[in-house]
Amino acid sequence: MTGDRALRLPTIIDVREAAARLHGRIVRTPLLENAELNARAGARVFLKVETLQHTGSFKARGAFNRLLQVRADERNRGVVAFSSGNHAQGVAFAARALSMPAVIVMPADAPAIKIDGTRTLGAEIVLYDRARESREAIAARIAAERGAVLVPSYDDPAIIAGQGTLGLEAADDLGRAGVAPDLVLAPVSGGGLIAGVSLAVHAAFPRAEIVAVEPEGFDDHARSLASGAIQRNEAASGSLCDALLAARPGDLTFAINRAHLAGGFAVSDAETLGAVAFAARTLKLVVEPGGAVALAAILTGKAALRGRNVLAVLSGGNIDPALLTRALASG
What we know:
By secondary structure, the chain is an alpha/beta fold. It contains 13 helices and 10 strands. 43% of the residues lie in helices and 15% in strands. A 6-stranded mixed β-sheet has the order 1-2-10-7-8-9, sandwiched between helices. Residues 1-5 have low confidence and may be disordered.
């Protein structure tokens, strides 16, 4: 897939249709404000808490939206997806609800809590070596052999639109409160979440500045936005943010994001662990490293925040207990 072509880019209409399709199937997660966080940031910070979503991450939104559009005559052959864990669980959750078989290709070094969670939801798991094998090739082969529908983790119009329902809810809640966001911070891997969020937020608040937050060493979106062309990450692993290790931005996601995003920040593993600890101690929320990078950008002052209204996404809470203990010990 190259450029902006073949597949139509989703629009705010697709996001609104996804919201109607998903009504009653997903959690309308809260938008929280915390006095201590506001004081530290010198701003009003509103946190969209997707850790409280089904399966513990925003991924249930896009997965359900995509699977609901699988044709009736295809459903008995099932779906195939590839993921380090959160998309895996989202697809498995939606497939179980719709009585569809699901095969998930997962890296062998994925957190045990994500592998176990996916298996518990009834999916068949195929493990691969992240450093030496292609998850895309493995998933494509399985889908072809079984006649199953391949469900990408981000570079798909229905996935992007489903993730955008998060932004639609946040924009609605902010509008009801009479607050216009000046800055929106969201975690980025392949870019599906922030692409969908940007469509929804800019439809309601066209002046909002939307910024990607990525792990250090995996800042392909920031580099791609700066250069105007898609850039790849050199490494396939090496960050605690296992959910944010896509090799490069998606073609569809980048086509949307280069039109909507103002740039990107990168945070270190140590900064991310500090955010995980802050979330647990102060916000009383369990957040995984990849889900905490936007909070890390706030706590470390990566962005100019003083006097601004900030929307930040806490995208997932599937963290191994040992890593949470490590974060609390270091924070």
